[in-house]
Specification:
heterodimer; A: mainly beta; 7-stranded mixed β-sheet; 4-stranded antiparallel β-sheet; B: 4-stranded antiparallel β-sheet; globular
Chain lengths: ~120, ~110
């Protein structure tokens, strides 16, 4: 049972570089989301998607893009990396409104990004 | 809008002592409430959840939480902690429709021998 898979687990970037964090889930979940975790700030929602072709902004969307072309995949793109984007990123999924929706999220293991 | 406040950023306790991690929330609508645990260098794992019904919720690893609507609280308790409970704990509130979770700032529980 793979669940939610994130790649890469670690990445170092230079300021201004771009990259994509990959996220895939095999549970047929409609809802997928990206959070960033910073010390003392908990997890903050970056972007989320309630189904293929539908995305929306969360609390801290600036500097990030997402797309949802399939139910399984939800990549997060950093357009021009900045040191302020140094963080641990978590992808998560859950059932959507057409299924059992309790709000329980299933998390990937995280991607640690350092921007120099 | 929803918000969650975890009242303690760090809680040190000795092994076999009881512990309470405090969580208050605010929301204009009915919500679901969760506690997640994060062990070092790992993702988040669901500890327990309150959806409806009994206000006392039991979770994994001997943890329980009580939903108090009048005080808008959802405190997490364990009567006797172990070294292996050392982790960061997050309280969260969700939008029941889309599972959009709002997290508290986290409480680091450190259990000393």
């Amino acid at each position: 049972n793979a669940g939610v898979t994130q790649t890469p687990k670690f990445q170092v970037l230079k300021t201004g570089q771009s990259m994509t964090l990959q996220c895939a889930q095999d549970m047929n979940h409609e809802y997928m989301s990206w959070y960033r975790q910073d010390p003392g700030m908990g997890l903050r929602l970056i972007h989320y998607s309630v189904g293929a072709g539908i995305t929306d902004q969360g609390e801290v969307p600036n500097g990030y893009n997402v797309s949802r072309s399939t139910t399984e995949d939800f990549p997060l793109r950093l357009l021009s990396a900045a040191p302020s984007q140094t963080s641990v990123y978590f992808c998560a999924s859950s059932y959507g409104p057409s299924g059992e929706s309790t709000g329980e999220l299933f998390f990937g293991e995280g991607s640690r990004l350092t921007v120099l | 809008a929803q918000s969650v406040t975890q009242l303690d950023s760090q809680v040190p306790v000795f092994e076999e002592a009881p512990v309470e991690l405090r969580c208050n929330y605010s929301s204009s609508v009915s919500v679901y409430l969760f506690w997640y645990v994060q062990y070092p260098n790992q993702g988040l794992q669901l500890l327990l959840k309150y959806l409806s019904g009994s206000t006392l919720v039991k979770g994994i690893n001997g943890f329980e939480a009580e939903f108090n609507k009048s005080q808008t609280s959802f405190h997490l308790r364990k009567p006797s902690v172990h070294i292996s409970d050392t982790a960061e704990y997050f309280c969260a509130v969700s939008d029941p429709l889309y599972g959009k979770l709002t997290f508290g700032q986290g409480t680091i529980l450190t259990v000393h021998p």
